[in-house]
Amino acid sequence: MTEYSPGLEGVVAAQTAISEVDGANGRLIYRGGYLIEDIAPTISFEETSYLLWNGELPNRSQLDALRQEMTAARKLKDSTRSVITSLEYDTDPMDVLRTAISAQGAAKALQKPTVSEAIALTAVIPTIVAAAHRRRHKRDLVEPRAELSHAANLLWMIDGQEPAKERVHWLDQYLVLLADHGLNASTFTARVVASTGSDLTSCVVGAIAALKGPSHGGATYAARTMLDSIGSLENVEKWLADAHAKHARFPGFGHRVYRTYDPRAKILREMAKTADPKLHQLAAHTEEVALKILHEAHPERPNASNVDFWASVVLTGAGIPKELFTCMFATSRVAGWTAHVLESLADLRIIRPASQWMGPEPGKKPVPLDQR
Amino acid sequence: MPSEYVPGLEGIVAAQTEISLVDGANGQLVYRGYVIADLAEEISFEEVAHLFWYGSLPSRAQLDGLAAQLSSVRTLTPAAMTTLDALPTDSDPMDVLRSVLSVQGVLPHLEKPTVEHAVHATAALPTILAAFHRRRKGLDFVKPRPDLGHAANYLYMLSGKEAAPELVRALNTYLVLLADHGMNASTFTARVIASTDSDLASCVVGAIGALKGPAHGGAPSAVMDQLEQIGTAANAEHWLREARNRKERFMGFGHRVYRTYDPRARILKVMCQRLNPTFYDLASKVEETALAILHEEHPERPQATNVEFYSAGVLQAIGLPKDFFPPTFAVSRVAGWSAHVLEQASHNRLIRPQSEYLGPQPRKPVPLAERG
């Protein structure tokens, strides 16, 4: 038996061709060997999903076929719609998503995960997220529109208005950048669930449950909340110094794997300039001051802002309300989750690690109830 | 340096725990120091839950307190009830459990896992299952009875009648035996989700998804299928040899951790003999034959019957339909899942292992119009 490594840090838990996080060199590689910076400027979320599922970028007709299959799968089942409308108005959108995906996938018989199911799950998430948002604001649900792309249709269903081209582009690029990232906690959850032979819905529901955690998917929301609370350029220094004095962590800084700047953060930082110039200015100054403080406190650590920090600015520019930030992460990452599950089927082995016993010596005799 | 990849994380220590110890070499299962054989027929499921959540067997007053707390939260929320009614009646009960608990567990705000949350989840599962059972049979919902214990109330809500004391005792023993079992896949799923600081309901929903897999909680139903196909004791040898020629696995045999007889299987076998003689006559003959065949094939391997094999007979005797075997496993294991979530949350570190990249080295994407 190996020594215990908390958080399984440094433990290889899967072999994968879906993505590689090269932390030492600050590189993220997507399936097929593409660097994220080569994918991001020109390739859509639909193409990225196709790549993660099939191993190669689609040609024009393959992409058209995928788009058609996705638009056909955007509709909620009647039962899912009833489930969503049974929830309290103020339910956390991630709880709505977890529940609605579970209901949408309720079936009579167990099914082995397939690419078609991955497509259907990916296609329906925006419909659920938009419904959760509309309901929260007591507004009618907006039906999906088949001629719109994945990102454009999502903005349409949230607002009920035709979105501007730039907003669609920013959201689409965000979705591309976040679609996969090695064995992060939610993807690992999906693979553990898949390892029992369970269905794809169960894997994605488990992954959503993991992404909900503030230490994982919740960080983008926390970064934006920090920027809101700082409020103005003049307040940056004081706010961060106070927070640091109280030993508060700065959301949006640091990463377990990257020892250098996160390549996704670099791209989002550049996009943020046009997506929301004012918030970008505040964020850039916050980044500068926070890094100075962190560097003074921990000169030995590779301090850097991460993807959550800059994603919070780009999503704001795209017009996404911050309550939906974690759901946006799920909207993107579902492509990676499902790709990992499909990949794991080729050599399925139940993931059942060992544990180290820290309890009392076995053989204690129970005292009868009345003598305790 | 990352460690070498071990498929299924076999032998890799993923957690330190005081909740249960699976001593595979000696065929022992230990709950917080107590050997399972000393607990199984002596104590109630509620006492085990107390042992897991608080670290000690309860005094009479503590037990009464916990029992009262459990019975006070057996009712489903209106949203959970509507969700249950919205799902198709032919849904897999595991999908119903996953979806309805996802609603029942919704909190107004994200909270750190507490014993109170554990009580809520544990109390809700029998009500969800019984309500679904009644609904799909076209029968009225039976309200929980606060004066009945956990096992007795589950059976009461299923049938609308108080069950015979012998059956209540049998179900209680089953619930005690299955309540925890080291780092099995569903418990590990719950801990990975907890490690992101997500809420307890999310952990349990994810664990249900993992338990659904045929390689984990689905096994007792598969045992029943196999025994139904075999039909008679006289047919056992012929059927099993044929199955072997078709390279089929025998259901209910073998375990990654036990190198000897599973102590839970031993207890369930004795119960089966008493409660379900018809099942026992066939099953014990199948067991004997299957073990002989497995031993012929792999004399070097420790071949043994596992807990699923005789679980099937006990759950059948209690009157549960076959597709209620996996969710009834959840009714028991939720005590362990939630204890592990509390333990993980008490000294948490994000579970984020590494992966080994098997894909190609970086290359440039071909523009869409030029792809073949």
Summed up:
Chain A is built from 16 helices and five strands.
How many helix segments of chain A?
A: 16
Query: How many distinct beta strands of chain A?
Result: 5
What CATH first level of the largest domain in chain A would be assigned?
Mainly Alpha
Q: Indicate the CATH topology of the largest domain in chain A.
A: Citrate Synthase, domain 1
Question: Into which percent range does the helicity of residues of chain A fall?
Answer: 40-55%
Largest sheet data of chain A: 3 strands, antiparallel
Mean pLDDT of chain B: 94
- Cα distance spanning the termini of chain A: 37 Å
* Apparent shape of chain A: globular
Write the layout of secondary structure elements.
The complex is a heterodimer of chains A (372) and B (372).
Chain A: E1 12-16, E2 19-22, E3 27-30, E4 34-35, H1 36-39, H2 45-54, H3 60-72, H4 78-86, H5 93-104, H6 115-136, H7 150-159, H8 165-177, H9 185-194, H10 200-211, H11 219-230, H12 236-245, H13 263-275, H14 277-297, H15 307-317, H16 325-344, E5 354-357
Antiparallel strand pairs in A: 2-3, 3-4
Chain B: E1 13-17, E2 20-23, E3 28-31, E4 34-35, H1 36-39, H2 45-54, H3 60-72, H4 78-86, H5 93-104, H6 115-136, H7 150-159, H8 165-177, H9 185-194, H10 200-211, H11 219-230, H12 236-245, H13 263-275, H14 277-297, H15 307-318, H16 325-346, E5 354-357
Antiparallel strand pairs in B: 2-3, 3-4
